[in-house]
Amino acid sequence: MARAASARRRCGESRPAGAGAASRAPRGRCGARCIVGWRRRSSAGPCRVWRVEAMASWVALSSSVVEYFEGEDFYRCGYCKNESGSRSNGMWAHSMTVQDYQDLIDRGWRRSGKYVYKPVMNQTCCPQYTIRCRSLQFQPSKSHKKVLKKMLKFLAKGEISKGNCEDEPMEPTMEDVVAGDVALINKLDIQCDLRTLQESLESEEKKKGRSAKKAESNELIQSQHPEEKLGSGEPSHSVEVHTVPKPGKGADLSKPPCRKAKEIRKERKRLKLMQQNPAGELEGFQAHREPLFPPKAKSNQPKSLEDLIFESLPENASHKLEVRLVPVSFEDPEFKSSFSQSFSLYVKYQMAIHQDPPDECGKTEFTRFLCSSPLEAENPPNGPDCGYGSFHQQYWLDGKIIAVGVIDILPHCVSSVYFYYDPDYSFLSLGVYSALREITFTRQLHEKTPQLSYYYMGFYIHSCPKMKYKGHYRPSDLLCPETYVWVPIEQCLSSLENSKYCRFNQDPEAVDEGRSKEPDRLQVFHKKAIMPYGVYKKQQKDPSEEAIVLQYASLVGQACSERMLLFRN
């Protein structure tokens, strides 16, 4: 395995230090590891390459073959840089079905190349919670839209936006907060009744009198209830009064919004009609609760995520961007032909963004980390057209690769593995842009495969500022580390503020429903034979063997333990 520091995930996310478990495997005289598919000490002593002759028969029964390493040591943390704070359990996956991996990540596992690991959540220094975005309900924030518009301007006119070029926003922008307040103010304004309308008009004309005093009184009452939530979509009588901004710093939201003269004339005319015919027009208005202003036309509705991404460009556009989905396989001609360019981009990214030395960005590390996957490609008739498995989403700009997103397409989700890009194009916020493209891609796959609807973003680490940005893609859920149920992130944040490790499921009686209940049914591969653990354990004399196998069963759950083959030497 490559050193942990050489394989960081998006925005500083590191390859698990627990990957070092593989390096602790016993070695032969020449130093080769005694692991299936690697080197193994022969009975005579010297090392020889041991190839798995029975692989064909394994696949006929199960494509998932794993070798488990118990986590007994602490390692250097890639997030807080604690030299001995990280702890995880891990296993080497020689092959794995997409369904098994789907079930594993729903129990807190993740893969780094072919190494699959699970943090020991209550002991590791930086607990890592699996996070998923509900892509079908996702709505881009104002900062997300800015990134998409910035890309469109660059493609259409070659414009390069100045200012902040950070790959991921660490906190919501002030403009996002203000937008929510203005939306609520507009809604309350539309829902005002006739008396409020009349008082508003008198206020505009006289600027003094009872109506003005009443407005001041209302403002005083409103300022006493700042805890009332805004932007909830429900009418409210208490709106937080904002402090007056400095000159040139924006509108003063503590004052009513300015009205255009045209709107005032329309209100005045409508009020006059109501006064002329109080028995008809006014009665009808009160009966049907018609709004004072008709709703905006559909053309003025906010654009969807797809509208923003796939907005048409002029024929004379300055640049052309193409996103290609390429299977991770050296047998695929497109993957093979683009490998050299993709590898060069990876080296440039790791050295510029993560300051990795050249010897940690070699072709071997790149291949092992991002081009080797245990997932077996599957193309069922009810699955997506591209099939399931591991892919590279390549972003081609004017004929060259400027970014690559490594993803896994699984039965219920698109899982983001890693993302790297050309630092020369940092001004395009490619990290945010690629996440939005992957959410859109998940929605497209859902149209053909209804059960595929989630976008998994890896791990959310509340104690690590660089990893908190994932919580800005909402609605999203965090995985409870004890019961493995999904909990909306909004319900988890207050607990995480008080403690790094939290059980999100508030039901004290709830347990892990997928836990291992019958360990004897666990499948073991031993001496080229497949057998249930109940048979295997009768042949063993090592007392520590049972503890290791039972730990593995508790971590993968009953379903996976019965489907996957656990290799024991």
Automatic annotation (TrEMBL):
GO molecular function list: arginyl-tRNA--protein transferase activity
EC category name: transferase
GO cellular component: cytoplasm
Stored InterPro entries: Acyl_CoA_acyltransferase, Arg-tRNA-P_Trfase_1_euk, N-end_Aminoacyl_Trfase, N-end_Aminoacyl_Trfase_C, N-end_Aminoacyl_Trfase_N
Xref: Pfam families: ATE_C, ATE_N
Keyword Cell membrane: no
Transferase is among the record's keywords: yes
Annotated catalysed reactions: an N-terminal L-alpha-aminoacyl-[protein] + L-arginyl-tRNA(Arg) = an N-terminal L-arginyl-L-aminoacyl-[protein] + tRNA(Arg) + H(+)
Record domain N-end aminoacyl transferase N-terminal: where: 76-146
Keywords from the named record: Acyltransferase, Transferase, Ubl conjugation pathway
Record region (Disordered): 1-25, 201-256
Low complexity bias locations: 14-25
E.C. designation(s): 2.3.2.8
SUPFAM superfamilies: Acyl-CoA N-acyltransferases (Nat) (SSF55729)
Positions with biased composition (Basic and acidic residues): 203-217
Residue ranges occupied by any N-end rule aminoacyl transferase C-terminal domain in the UniProt entry: 342-480
Function: Involved in the post-translational conjugation of arginine to the N-terminal aspartate or glutamate of a protein. This arginylation is required for degradation of the protein via the ubiquitin pathway.
Similarity annotation: Belongs to the R-transferase family.
Protein name, entry field: Arginyl-tRNA--protein transferase 1
The gene coding this protein: ATE1
